[in-house]
Amino acid sequence: MIKKIGVLTSGGDAPGMNAAIRAAVRTAVTDGLEVFGIHRGYSGLLDEDFTSMDYSSVGGIMERGGTILRSSRCEEFRLEEGRAKAADILKKHGIDGLLVIGGEGSLSGAKLLMEEQGIPVVGLPGTIDNDIALTDMCIGVDTCLNTCVDTIQKLKDTASSHERAFVVEVMGRSSGYVALASGMAVGAEAIIIPEIPVNYEEIADKIWRERKRGKINCIIVVAEGASSAYTVARHVEHRIGYETRITILGHIQRGGSPTAFDRVLASRMGYASVKALEENEAGTMIALQGGKMVRVSLEKILSQKKTIDMELVEMAKILS
Amino acid sequence: MIKKIGVLTSGGDAPGMNAAIRAAVRTAVTDGLEVFGIHRGYSGLLDEDFTSMDYSSVGGIMERGGTILRSSRCEEFRLEEGRAKAADILKKHGIDGLLVIGGEGSLSGAKLLMEEQGIPVVGLPGTIDNDIALTDMCIGVDTCLNTCVDTIQKLKDTASSHERAFVVEVMGRSSGYVALASGMAVGAEAIIIPEIPVNYEEIADKIWRERKRGKINCIIVVAEGASSAYTVARHVEHRIGYETRITILGHIQRGGSPTAFDRVLASRMGYASVKALEENEAGTMIALQGGKMVRVSLEKILSQKKTIDMELVEMAKILS
Amino acid sequence: MIKKIGVLTSGGDAPGMNAAIRAAVRTAVTDGLEVFGIHRGYSGLLDEDFTSMDYSSVGGIMERGGTILRSSRCEEFRLEEGRAKAADILKKHGIDGLLVIGGEGSLSGAKLLMEEQGIPVVGLPGTIDNDIALTDMCIGVDTCLNTCVDTIQKLKDTASSHERAFVVEVMGRSSGYVALASGMAVGAEAIIIPEIPVNYEEIADKIWRERKRGKINCIIVVAEGASSAYTVARHVEHRIGYETRITILGHIQRGGSPTAFDRVLASRMGYASVKALEENEAGTMIALQGGKMVRVSLEKILSQKKTIDMELVEMAKILS
Amino acid sequence: MIKKIGVLTSGGDAPGMNAAIRAAVRTAVTDGLEVFGIHRGYSGLLDEDFTSMDYSSVGGIMERGGTILRSSRCEEFRLEEGRAKAADILKKHGIDGLLVIGGEGSLSGAKLLMEEQGIPVVGLPGTIDNDIALTDMCIGVDTCLNTCVDTIQKLKDTASSHERAFVVEVMGRSSGYVALASGMAVGAEAIIIPEIPVNYEEIADKIWRERKRGKINCIIVVAEGASSAYTVARHVEHRIGYETRITILGHIQRGGSPTAFDRVLASRMGYASVKALEENEAGTMIALQGGKMVRVSLEKILSQKKTIDMELVEMAKILS
After folding, report:
1. How far apart are CA A41 and CA A23, in angstroms?
2. D302 Cβ partners below 8 Å, 6+ apart?
3. pLDDT tens per residue, range C102-151
4. φ and ψ of B220, to 5 deg
């Protein structure tokens, strides 16, 4: 039976991570477990940068973006020696279960820590890219989408006032989810995602048609993994001679107070992750499937690629 | 085969209705259908207050709250004569399919219009209460939740500064969804919903314990269908002598530019509703189930009551 | 020469109070002074609820609404004995200068503490009502206005969708500033303020004319000190039979992260207040006049009534 | 006596321009004048792209960013022939007074149109840079500041989570106002503006000291006219080996629904500009001085440079 658990956040920060930490800590404390917060992800684990947490340590944090436990990327943990050292440290402190909140890289590390070193881990998908398979949504995605939508809406004011095209580059190295959903939500004239080869001819034709129909602004959303805003703008200007501006949303997509959805999702995942550890279901990640919290093996999740809904892609073309 | 459709919004307005109208109109136009917008819900239908809509009529509306088609409640349509007259008018204009965006009452009317008068209808769930069975979410709920969360967060500033309790009354005549989700998202000390009998003793005990633990603010969220903010405040003050303030969020919960989620949800529902009409699946409502758009018979939906997730209720108690 | 100062917030909280505290503490520390934070206003002063503050104690607070020093209203301090006791406590702790951030009542208390008990005080105007004479703006007013505008804008969505009138009650017991400025900013059809007798006939006429001109919504903003939303709604409904809804913004006007304006204003005032104490200009309040920070005697400020700009009142009538 | 006026927006768009247009149109109509809206600034003037405007043409626009009259930069108008042609067109249409809303370049054009061609013009300062002399604020600045503050606040979440420095580039080619005010409002560790030579040594020292004091994030705000974010980041990384990220806010600073302040300011300026034309005070710009609307000759305004408040600069260093 588990008595003491550790919780860490790793990789890029995502809004809602604090709600997950809060839920995990309070659920664990309610069930009589001891909880250690591990600072700065796997780096802090290797540095023994731990802090004992109780009910009050997580008060007033749900509404804050980022992660109070901080995060980092850690080279040493990528090596087996690093993970062995981590396991020793955890054992030394009597930590018999670990919660890891992060993206694909962080969850891969967690999986190896369990397979190689026997540390029971449960993962929580925390990444604004929504590129983790088998969960409908990751912690932080909904907030990121709303930041994208609010920001692009501001660009539309200027685009309309000056009759310009804007190319907006959003997050998404391997997944076009953020680009697709935010593009749909602002009625973008074109959306360029890594899952589908870009067809500049088709985009130029569409913008041309819209222009003739009297539309005075034009928004093109591009996922960073598909192309760069500069390349897209060059192609568009070259083909249709439309004055084009570029905006790279960058890090502002990571921040901000989490939305209601992310707070509730993260709270549910934090709660469910402790239950999974307690019920000896380590080696899993908590996923949202059809509105429910489920446990899916890390193995399965990490061997699959998140796919994009092709019907949404078609719909986006018809609606804008 | 359907050639001409009508679309109307009915009952209380909800953010995202415009995105649904936009998607329905553009999908229909793309498929070669004619579209009539019907103003002011069933009232406008009976007054023949119609407007022909094309691709451009729905430009720039997605980001706006409310409904450009306006809405109303209509007594005449509650009677069979009213609905017979409505059917005659629709036939006169050659409208052979009707999309109805609204809450339970509006969908009941739509169902009768089809059963009695043979008009093919497809419903879309548009109500901030989230009280329609068999769909995970209704259009407008996510925006409403975020408005609640943003607003209650402001109250927490004052609650902390003055060490007070706030009782906040939110939407939800028959369903406690908005209260439960927004209450969880702000870490409310107590959440009172119509689905569960209120226990003031337990609430008072909890607030008392939190106080002693050093918490300097206290938020109680109550669904309007469960109790009134006044009653709750009286009970709390009576039991623990805590200075209590009341806020009734009221109509501000209905408005505002829709969130990314509501824009995408409403767009998908608008698109799917036209497809349902085209594929002779009238008599249904478009529902979100496990991330997918599905068609569920109006009959089935209207004969069931939306239930609340009891695990969420328990979780909320543990986490705050 | 002053060596040790105290700072407190009193009365209703206002966004930006934390920025003022931050600026005062850091300015004082930079100048080599010791600073005590006094909790819960004059109550905490009488309870000796003090905390020593340095540069770091005020980190990360500028963006937060409310006041980290908390606030309260204090009966005991209204009596001369209370103030004598307060002076003794301050002397006992070696505090030779006091900063008081608050509204008219709080500043009156500060003035008496100086006149009767010889404690050097400097006031900062912190109240969302903007009812303090001789300063263009008080800390918190700009944030309050933006909250009012954002909220009323949401009501307009619903008002337009349902062709209704909304009566919105905002802060302002003795001053109509918030009602006037927010009413102008949302294009309200009528604005009712305590400085000017209400003329329901004129309001009804105006709404009637707008209606006939095709306007489908109507917003009436009323300052709480002029009338109640209920009374106004009854009058309007009675005269023109327009369906009317009521919203009382209440405490949400107090909260929220301060705007850029309030953060800069409060920072400047916090800085200037310490300089005033250091330069032996106690007995004054820091005021904003024509973009500059000036010191005005508390005597002068408290003997005058804030007036409303009648040209703005006329303009508001023409523009909506 | 003036009977017919034209209004145009020129140069970069700024939030609040619509409120100014609305106020100008409604004031003019109330006073019995005819009003022409001129599309796309001086370009539209030369193209005779006019539209007759009345009370209703400006309904529902106050809350929208950008400018419904659109804007552009116009080469032809920079030449005397262009301006002579413009004057002919205005005379042909019987327009005997022109309102120009825009920045320094646009106002220079307006001044020449009056001096050379005898067209009565009144200017309104509309630019988010706040770089126009003799007015405390320009239309759009306050909204821009709040967008900067909200956005930088999001970066702070990530900066804290990853213990990084962020260099944020904001608007301000010749004026550091936006950088200074937004930097103060977010508590930036360093603010780099064109008015003051940058001292990288001093900045590096400060960041170093803060780090040692335990501060886990660092924000440097730079005005585009002072340096580029890249250059600043290179200097900082070089000197203190701190991991640094870059964000260029760019066009999102232009957009968004205007704040309460900008709506009221623009309304007052729109109103005052019509009154100035009516009272034969053309050749002036409406300015905000010490809370009042005043008329200042364009000559005077354009011959001076906006200065920065050096006390604010010093204060910013002490407070962060």
Report:
1. 18
2. D104, D107, D108, D111, D133
3. 999 999 999 999 999 999 999 999 999 999 999 999 999 999 999 999 99
4. -115, 125
Question: What domains appear along chain A, each with residue ranges and CATH number?
Answer: 4-140+258-302 (3.40.50.450), 141-254 (3.40.50.460)
At a CB cut-off of 8 Å and minimum separation 6, what does D159 contact? Answer: D165, D166, D216, D217, D218, D219, D245
CB A110 within 8 A of CB A9: no
Cα dihedral C309→C310→C316→D1 (10° resolution):
-110
- Test C263 with D149 for CB contact under 8 angstroms: yes
Any CB–CB contact under 8 A between B314 and chain A?
no
Check CB contact of C160 with chain B, cutoff 8 Å.
yes
Annotated binding site of B for ATP: 12, 73-74, 103-106
Sign of CA dihedral A311, A316, A317, B2: positive
Contacts of D216 in chain A (CB under 8 A): 70
C36: left (phi over 0), alpha (psi -120 to 50) or beta: beta
Alpha-carbon span A271 to C88, nearest angstrom: 52
> Can you tell me the distance from the alpha carbon of D176 to that of D138, in angstroms, rounded to the nearest whole number?
14
Q: What string of DSSP letters covers D53-119? A: E-GGGGTT-TT-SS-TT-----SGGGSHHHHHHHHHHHHHTT---EEEEE-HHHHHHHHHHHHHH--
Residue of A nearest to D248 (CA): A248
Q: What is the pLDDT of residues B94-152, one digit of tens each?
A: 999 999 999 999 999 999 999 999 999 999 999 999 999 999 999 999 999 999 999 99
Chains that touch A (3 or more CB pairs under 8 A): B, D
Q: Which residues of B38-70 are buried (b: 16+ CB within 10 A; e: fewer)?
A: bbbbbbbbbeebbeebeeebbbbbbbbbbbbbb
Q: Report the C-alpha gap between D263 and D257 in whole angstroms.
A: 9
pLDDT digits (tens, 9 = 90+) for D108-123: 999 999 999 999 999 9
From chain B, the residues in CB contact with A249 under 8 A are: none
Give the pTM.
Answer: 0.97
The verdict on whether A49 is a catalytic residue reads: no
Amino acid at B5: I
Q: Known binder of ligand: residue C78?
A: no
Instruction: Flag if A247 and D245 touch (Cβ within 8 Å).
Output: no
First CA to last CA distance, chain A: 55
Specify the pairing of strand C218-223 against strand C4-9. Answer: unpaired
Cβ neighbours, 10 Å, residue C307: 10
| pLDDT at residue number D270 | 98
Query: What are the pLDDT digits (tens) for B33-82?
Result: 999 999 999 999 999 999 999 999 999 999 999 999 999 989 999 999 99
The residues with which D247 forms a beta bridge, in sequence order, are: D168
| C166 in contact with chain B, both atoms CB, cutoff 8 A | yes
Specify whether the CB–CB gap between D125 and D287 falls below 8 A: yes
Taking the C-alpha atoms of residue A301 and residue A298, their distance in angstroms, rounded to an integer, is: 5
Distance, in Å, from the CA atom of A23 to the CA atom of A265, rounded to the nearest integer, reads 10
Q: Does B59 touch chain A (CB under 8 A)?
A: yes
Contact A186 B63 (CB under 8 A): yes
The count of other CB atoms within 10 Å of the CB of residue C102 is: 31
- Per-position b or e across A72-105, b if 16+ CB within 10 A of its CB: bbbeebeeeebbebbbebbeeeebbbbbbbbbbb
What value, to the nearest 5°, has the Cα angle with vertex D227 and ends D224 and D232?
A: 120
